[in-house]
Amino acid sequence: MGKHLTTRAEDYSKWYNELVVKADLAQNSGVRGSMVIKPYGFAIWERIQADLDRRFKETGHMNAYFPLFIPKSYFSKEASHVDGFAKECAVVTHYRLKNDPDGNGVIVDPAAKLEEELIVRPTSETIIWDTYRDWIQSYRDLPILVNQWANVVRWEMRTRLFLRTAEFLWQEGHTAHATKEEAIQEAETMLDVYASFVEEIMAIPVLRGIKTEGERFAGALETYCIEALMQDGKALQAGTSHFLGQNFAKAFDVKFQTKEGTQEYVWATSWGVSTRLMGALIMTHSDDNGLVLPPKLAPYQVVIVPIYKGQEQLDAISEVANDLVQQLRAVGVTVKYDDRDTQKPGWKFNQYELQGVPLRIAIGPKDLEKGSVELARRDTLTKQFVSQSDVATVIPALLDEIQNSLFEKALKFREEHTHVANSWEEFETLIKSNAGFVHAHWDGTTETEDKIKDLTKATIRCIPLNNNEEEGTCVLTGKPSKQRVVFARAY
RNA sequence: CGGGAAGUGGCGCAGGUGGUAGCGCAUCUGGUUUGGGACCAGAGGGUCGCAGGUUCGAGUCCUGUCUUCCCGACCA
Predict the structure, then answer these.
(1) Which nucleotide is nearest to A369 (CA to C1')?
(2) Nearest protein residue to nucleotide B34, judged by CA and C1' positions
């Protein structure tokens, strides 16, 4: 194993995999397609969770928890939903093991077969709507605004750390409303919550839009999404919010009595983001030296590395360092002082660079003399000397600047990788060179969408919200079109 | 499920035509070091995926089997 990462130019996906492992974010496990999220990676996920959770609560939601197992029969109630998930469900058929009578090890006890198989949830609409039936009698019981933080399992054929794993962590919001308008409003509100979180905290610019019928969530009437663009020109769906209409209410017989005394089916939404956001984070900001973290997500925003000879010098440096730690904490900066004697400074520099720590302070004997520190920025790889007395004022401002600068850089990248195609030749050339988002006219049919996918692997990422109306002709069929939609190859 | 490749210390790999396993990184000990992944000396760790077979002898050859990875198909 070499000391350096494979570069993005050499092999983008190899770069990604090496980075995830070397930055100590996650690793493959003994279970096919399932990963171990390591403490450093999980610390980032916890920050994502904490900020999202705060936003959910600010918009009136509460957390709850529903079972991991769902009786098989629940899945037969909503036809399009089961179509979407049937091929990737893990099924529990037995509840007991026993010693193998023929030799060593254990076997599944054939006598312990379940009457009805249990499905490990791929998503929780069915069990939640089965429960909501009991919760909802009257319009006074509405709305129900619930979120769940959970793990789900989808038996994917090909997996990649964070981007697509068989088991993943996510949150799923499931809401119930008295009116269609209110449910649509909820779905749109949550899309806004996702978009502002991803842009403000993760520093990733996103397109907001709706999915075409072909790309819609199984069981939804409308799927809203946010789409991000990765450094290799491929799109990544970063979050979805679904308007489910009355499909699940009808499937699970969830009705309420209106003010007027009539019985009506409840309107629903669901919305989710997952550990896949970690993949988006990595692929948006990182470089050939490793991870680059936006300050608002970094487990520690600043790391202090002492450079010393002998205990006496370390003691003198530690005095300064500990004082800086206190000052920085007092102004809300998270900081780690790494005074381990087991690793050399150069090793630490490389390690923290690989792990994307936004700012690094080095303090050595020269700094003690001059009353300064060396301050290095991860995103630009630049260094400057700062007076020790200025550290606590310079750093908060610098962290803000880094946060903004990462977003601006990603936005600029997206703008440079967003194109307009007016002919099939143009379209094909752009897509096949992984040029990024391509705005093109489309005749609105699933047949054309599928054909374009067959020909180029590009999918319609979204129809942007507030899209400009523009007369044109479909890039493939030449049929009339009233607006451009956004195509790209995607993860 | 189709096509390809691979299973050898923790990780990454080497081991033409059979002779009982080695390298790099990592780990441990001692010492010298510490402003961009230190150096020297020493040490520990592997029934070579599994099961058969051929042979005096199998990491190596044969058969079977399991698993993983890559490319497709599939994928909110």
Answers:
(1) B35
(2) A344
User: Nearest nucleotide by C1' from A360 CA?
Assistant: B36
| Positions on chain B within 7 A of a protein C-beta | 1, 10-12, 24-25, 33-38, 67-76
> pLDDT, tens digit, for every residue of A21-62?
889 998 887 777 888 899 999 999 999 999 999 999 999 999
Question: What CATH number is associated with residue A369?
Answer: 3.40.50.800
The HSE-up count of residue A49 (CA atoms within 13 Å, CB side) is 17
Q: What percent of chain A has pLDDT over 90?
A: 78
pLDDT of A416:
96
Residue closest to sugar C1' of B11 by CA: A1
Last residue of one domain, picked from the residues A251, A285, A319: A285
Is A257 found in the same domain as A321? no
Q: Is residue A103 part of a domain?
A: no
Which one is predicted more confidently, A111 or A297?
Answer: A297
Instruction: For residue A133, give both structure tokens.
Output: 């039936």
Whole-angstrom CA distances from A78 to A15, A92, A264, A305 are: 41, 21, 18, 58
Question: Residues A73, A203: one domain?
Answer: yes
Q: Is the pTM of this model over 0.80?
A: yes
> What tens digit of pLDDT does each residue of A309-347 get?
999 999 999 999 999 999 999 999 999 999 999 999 999
Same domain? A326 vs A241: no
ipTM for this prediction:
0.87
Burial A330-359 (b: 16+ CB within 10 A, else e): eeebebebbeeeeeeeeebbbbbbbbbbbb
Per-state percent for chain A, helix, strand, coil, to nearest 5: 40, 30, 30
Spanning CA of A192 to C1' of B35, the rounded length in angstroms is 47
Q: Residue A347: inside a domain, yes or no?
A: yes
Nucleotide in closest CA–C1' contact with A3: B37
Pick out the nucleotide with least CA–C1' distance to A349.
B36
Residue-number span of the structural domain to which A381 is assigned = 302-398
Q: Which of A369, A398, A427 is the last residue of a domain?
A: A398
CATH number reported for the structural domain that contains residue A215 in this entry: 3.30.930.10
SS3 A206: coil
Indicate whether A11 pLDDT > 90. Answer: no
Q: Identify whether A292 is part of a domain.
A: no
pLDDT grade for A395, boundaries at 50, 70 and 90: very high
